[in-house]
Structure formats: C-alpha cells, structure tokens
Design a protein that fits this description.
heterodimer, A: about 140 residues, alpha+beta, five-stranded antiparallel beta sheet, four-stranded antiparallel beta sheet, 9 strands, B: about 475 residues, seven-stranded mixed beta sheet, 19 strands
Chain lengths: ~140, ~475
C-alpha cells in the first residue's frame, strides 16, 4: 500500500467504518474496493483468473463510490468473485471499470450494504478522502 | 455533538432533547434511559443521529429512543419516528437494510433437568437443520412465481406449504402477512439474492438459542403464552437476508434524487425519504412489505427446521418434545398504525429501527388471546446473557407509539471486541457455564461477546420503570447456534 493511497478501519459501535484516501477519484474507488474485500476477510483461490467490465453511473462522486462497491458486493454474493486489479476510468458521473480477479476461497464476514451515512468525498491533505460506513 | 448538559430531565428514566437544540429539528427527542445508560449512549454519535432523525418531514409528536440505543448509520439503532400518513415521508434508512429483522420465540413443556445430557446433540442438530453462516444458501430455491407468493403471503405461504400451523400464524405480528406487498416494485437483483436464501439464518448478530424459562414475573401472561419455569424455549433472531438488504440499497440509491425532486433537505444522505403518497414512496412501501413478508416466511421455515431438530434429538427421550409458538415480532419496520397524539387519533407510519412494536391491552389488530395481556415483546440479550419476554402497556401506547426496546444494544465496536476477546476463550467460558455453542466462526463469536453489549437486564428494568413494557419472564441460554 503506497503512502499516498490506502485504507484503514475506523472504530464504529455497531457497523464498520473504512477511511480511504488516494490522489484522485479512480484511486479512491480502487482503495475502497480493496479495503472492503479486506474487511470481509476475503481470500481468493489460486489461478482461475477472471475478467469483468462494468459501467456505474450516479449524480456525484459519493454515488459512484456507493454504487461501485455495491456492484462488487453483488459479484461476491452472486458469482463468488473478488477483484484485485482495477483499470478505472472516471468522468464526473460515469465510471467504466475493467477488473481482474479470482473466485472467492473464503469470506469471513458478510457486508449487508454500503451506506451513504455522512459520506463525503473531500479534498484533504492526502488528496481525496472519504469515510464509508458499511452495514454488517 | 450532543452532550448530557443539552438534555432536559423528565424523570429518572426519561430525558429530552428540546426541539430548540438545533434549528432544523421539527420535533423533540425523548430518550428512555437511566443516567448510567445515558452516559454509555453519549459515548458515541447516537444522540446526534437522533437529532438528525427529527428533520424528517411530516414527523408527529417526538422522536423516541430506547435504552438499548446505539450508533447506526443515518438513523440510530433503537429509534422510533412517526410520520403523518399519507403526506409525511417514509425513509428506508430509518427502517434499516435488514427489513423485518426480528425475533421468534417457541416454547415447550420440556424440563431442562430431564434433557441436560442431550443439549450438545440438540445444538449440533439445530446447526445441521438450520443453515447458517456467511453466504450459505438454504434447502430451498424458489422460482419467480413462488418468490412472488412469498412476497405477497409471508408466513401464510409457509402454512399452505405445510411448514406452519394456524396457531403459529395467530401468534405472529400481523399474522405473518403484511398486506400491500408489491413484487413489481422489487428489483430483479433483490429477487435473485432472495431466491436461495429463504430458510437461512445468515451471520453477524443473528442466532438460534435454546433457553430455559428462568423466572416468571407475570404468571397470568406467562400462562397465556405457555411459558413454564424450568422448561425449554427456542429463540430465532434473523430477518429478510440479502433480499431485504438489496431492496433497501435500491431505494436509498433511488431516493438520492427523489429528495431533490421534492425539495427535501436533510443533514445526512442516509436519511433520504419520499412522501408516502408519492409514486416513489408507494413503490418503497410495496417493496418493503414484500421484504417483511419474506422475513416472516424465513423465520417460519427456520422454526420448521428447528422443530425437526428437536424431534431428532429429543423424541423418545421426553414425552412431549413439541414446540409451540409464543410470538414473532419485527424490530426493523415501517408500519402504518393509528396512534393518539395530543388527544387526537392520527394515522402515522411508525418507523422502528432496532425497536419493537409493543401494543398494549385492547389495541385493535392484536390477536384475541393477547387482548387482555398486551402484545408479547421478545428482547434477546447478548450471547450468554438473559433474554426477556415482556408485554406492551397503556404506557407504550401513550408515550412511545406502541414501541419498546429490542435488545441489549452494543457499546463496543466489532474490531475492539475482537481485540479484547478471543473466540476460543469465550466459547470455553460459555461451555463452563453450561452453554453449548455451535459457531461458524470464532472471530465472529468474539465480535458478539457479551462485553460488547450493554446489560440487557438494565435495559429491561428501564423500560419497565418507564412503563413502556411490563416483565413477563426472564430466559437463560443453554445452547447457542451462530453463523
């Protein structure tokens, strides 16, 4: 994890909170995806690499973040896939994501949903930052 | 951040945040808590979330929070808010992702002392019959037509399929079926997630527990419910699984633009909402009711399989191994109900998120057998601690929109709990106290350690003193199954 991009869990009484940072929105989305998989305790099977491409739309950066992570939750739930390599192209309201990953070997925790709770993608000292609360 | 000095004391167990605290508040906040519980509540952001909840358009009376309150997302867990029907709003985030998460209690005439040696087998059998754990599917895969039936009919679908009895349904909130469910308002993705998750427990704080009736406080009500001191009961805690989570996700996303259309300003985007008489509001109501019915059917199927486990483990070892239903209640729901506010009867949508309906004696819509006692309320404790059976009262109808607490309420984050408690040690400690444990994950067990929760006895004592519920019986766990 490079210093100018990363993620860290933050204390939350009942659910999970993830602080993410990166120089730009594409990097922020990638860190959030990796952080969410990490929080879930997901490990991938060796080999069997898969590719998926998705398009996500919303009215703003926060919406893109929630909708993108929700799509990834869906891949875990329904196809049993987790991604570790991301090529993300972001405009203001559209995200094009080409992703590579593997089948899930193990998932320790279930994330029910990605919430909008106090969610703000903000320009701060580390570039862009956000704090995402997950319902678990 | 709201501090204790911002609160007005009403009594030893009731406090208020006046609507003058912040300019965007539409109504005050009433907090049912002792001073000690209040200090625990003030340790996180739950009071600020309660203040945020008071900004929802169309609120009547006051936002009420329970002693088991804790920080959630958007709306606090343990919160109750009533909005005027039909022009007030409905907010999916004020109900929660796990729509109709709830509790079912079954009781028996099986005396604990006669089956102590069988409890380990019983826990193993429950674990075998009732699918649980992260991503674990169930015994059933519903096709689209069957899923539509579940959405419309709830536990009544289970009755037709032979998984329920008339008595089970008579002892279920709304008799196991909420009218007005509209499958057309449910996304294909939600249907996909729901198709193989019916009849599953899931993970997290969901559980199945075998408990013994430890002490009866109200013999008359206990007799009506069939609760006998020293006899086994079975508690199931779960909800609408991925089906409900997806419905909430879909509508929280869609309502981000809906609030702009209706010019609704909110302090937190997770509180997004729509007027109930709008097309968007009606669509969510139809989908939410579908998820509620899914959850009633889900708990009914789990009860069916738990009964099979009891039969497998105990038939032939005790004369009567059968389980009868005590009640099934929701604690994450929006319900259209009539309540008295300022002396007038008003139709409202009561949002309960981590709060239980607690209708008092004589309330219309309550089964005839509970008209005298009041509605049974099921309050699960944290793992290894007591659970409670209460009843609703005149006080809950008058002061908390027919609602009361729903559990112990967390005080410690999951990550801190995992750092503080080792799952293997916790299991050994529970086993040493005679509690048999079947757990899918030891770290998951540690997250739900009793140290991470408030004292459920103190929570129950508070609602009892406040008059918004009355004690019927205390239950003590003897076997736990967790995903």
């Amino acid at each position: 994890m490079s210093e100018n991009a990363g993620y860290a869990e933050r204390e939350h009484t009942a659910d999970w909170s993830l602080h993410v940072w990166a120089p730009d929105l594409a990097g922020l989305l990638e860190q959030a995806a990796k952080g969410m998989a990490d929080l879930s305790g997901i490990t991938a099977k060796e080999g069997g690499r898969v590719k998926r491409s998705i398009k996500v739309e919303s009215t703003d950066a926060e919406g893109l973040l929630v909708n993108f992570l929700t799509e990834l939750l869906h891949f875990v739930d329904q196809e049993g896939l987790v991604f570790d390599t991301f090529h993300l192209t972001v405009s203001e309201t559209v995200l094009q994501a080409s992703m590579q990953g593997s089948p899930v070997a193990e998932r320790k925790k279930e994330i029910k949903a990605v919430t909008y709770h106090n969610l703000k993608v903000e320009k701060k000292s580390k570039g862009l930052e956000a704090e995402i609360v997950f319902d678990v | 951040m709201v501090t204790l000095s911002d609160l007005k004391k009403i009594s030893d167990v009731e406090w208020e945040i006046p609507s003058t605290y912040r300019s965007d508040m539409r109504v005050p906040v009433a907090i049912f808590a002792t001073r000690e519980l209040l200090e625990a509540i003030a340790g996180d952001k739950s009071l600020d979330q309660a203040v945020n909840a008071t900004t929802l358009p169309g609120l009547v009376g006051r936002v009420v929070v329970m002693p088991d309150m804790h920080q959630g997302y958007g709306f606090p867990i343990g919160g109750v808010a009533a909005t005027q029907y039909p022009d007030g709003v409905i907010s999916p985030g004020a109900i929660g992702y796990d729509i109709n998460c709830g509790v079912r209690l079954l009781a028996s005439q099986i005396e604990l002392e006669k089956v102590s040696a069988e409890l380990d087998d019983l826990a193993i059998s429950l674990n075998k019959h009732c699918p649980s754990g992260v991503g674990v599917g169930g015994h059933y895969r519903l096709n689209e037509r069957e899923l539509d039936q579940v959405m419309r009919e709830g536990a009544q679908w289970a009755l037709k399929k032979g998984f329920a009895s008339e008595s089970d349904l008579g002892r279920t909130e709304e008799f196991g079926r909420i009218p007005g469910a509209d499958p057309a308002r449910v996304s294909q993705r939600a249907k996909q997630r729901g198709s193989n998750q019916i009849g599953t427990l899931g993970a997290g704080n969901h559980f199945i527990e075998v408990e013994v009736v430890d002490k009866v406080f109200d013999q008359e009500a206990a007799d009506v419910m069939g609760l006998r001191e020293g006899c086994l009961t079975l508690m199931i805690h779960c909800g609408s699984r991925g089906f409900g989570h997806q419905i909430c996700t879909d509508y929280v996303r869609d309502f981000q633009s809906t609030i702009q259309r209706y010019k609704i300003e909110l302090p937190d985007r997770e509180l997004v909402c729509a007027p109930m008489d709008s097309a968007e509001g009606k669509a969510y109501l139809g989908a939410m009711n579908a998820a509620a019915n899914f959850a009633f059917a889900n708990r009914q199927l789990l009860a069916y399989h738990a009964r099979q486990a009891f039969e497998e483990s105990l038939a032939g070892r005790v004369k009567n191994w059968r389980l009868h239903q005590v009640y099934d209640i929701a604690h994450n729901m929006g319900k259209v109900e009539n309540h008295t506010v300022d002396g007038k009867t008003v139709k409202v949508c009561v949002h309960r998120k981590g709060a239980t309906r607690a209708f008092g004696p004589g309330t219309p819509g309550l089964a005839s057998e509970f008209q005298k006692t009041g509605q049974p309320v099921l309050v699960p404790g944290s793992m290894g601690t007591a659970s409670w059976v209460l009843v609703g009262t005149e006080g809950s109808m008058a002061r908390s929109f027919g609602s009361t607490c729903h559990g112990a309420g967390r005080t410690m984050s999951r990550s801190k709990a995992k750092k503080t408690v080792r799952g293997s040690e916790l299991r050994a400690e529970l086993e040493a106290r005679g509690i048999h444990v079947q757990a899918g994950s030891l770290p998951g067990l540690a997250e739900e350690a009793p140290q991470a929760y408030k004292d459920v006895d103190e929570v129950v004592e508070t609602v009892s003193r406040a008059g918004i519920a009355r004690k019927v019986a205390r239950l003590r766990p003897v076997a736990v199954v967790k995903g």
